[in-house]
Design goal:
about 60% helix, about 0% strand
């Protein structure tokens, strides 16, 4: 959340008019400091959107969301890239170490996998409860794996798209 005065001080979304979506995201990135922006987790502050019905609509929306990333600050791009790279690295190295690592690495590989999955599940379950979202915690490892393909296809498509526009 931010105050109206902060919004007006930075001329609102003026600097982001060329962006089809994500102008609010870019504004917060531009204007935010530790002292002038806060997170509000009260249910009355939640913004709920109606989900897309078809895969085509969903894919177009996600592509539009990811296309905003090229306007992010370099630091944010690097951190998001590092997060994605670590996730891909984890899911690539896990089966490779199980198959080719030999018996001496099997226990450590499985333990690392379990620790990551438990930590991820606990963190995301806590977030879902706080946001009052309904989500099966047991699906978190599945979606964590599928997220790689989401980024691969949607991210690549968004990166090479000529012009993303609203429909």
């Amino acid at each position: 959340m931010y105050k109206k005065s902060l919004f007006l001080r930075y001329n609102g979304f003026h600097d982001h008019l060329q962006v089809v979506g994500g102008d609010d995201d870019l504004f917060v990135s531009q204007a935010a400091s530790r002292t002038n922006v806060g997170v509000c987790l009260k249910p009355e502050s939640f913004m709920v959107s109606i989900p897309k019905v078809t895969f085509r609509e969903w894919f177009r929306q996600k592509k539009r969301h990811l296309s905003v990333g090229k306007h992010y600050k370099l630091r944010d791009k690097l951190l998001l890239g590092l997060l994605t790279l670590s996730q891909v690295g984890f899911w690539l190295s896990f089966p490779l170490l199980l198959v080719f690592g030999g018996q001496e690495y099997a226990a450590a590989t499985v333990a690392t996998f379990l620790i990551r999955m438990v930590a991820l599940t606990v963190i995301l379950d806590k977030i879902h409860r706080r946001l009052e979202a309904r989500f099966g915690w047991y699906l978190i490892p599945v979606f964590d794996f599928l997220y790689i393909f989401y980024y691969l296809f949607t991210g690549t498509s968004a990166f090479f798209a000529k012009k993303i526009r609203w429909n």
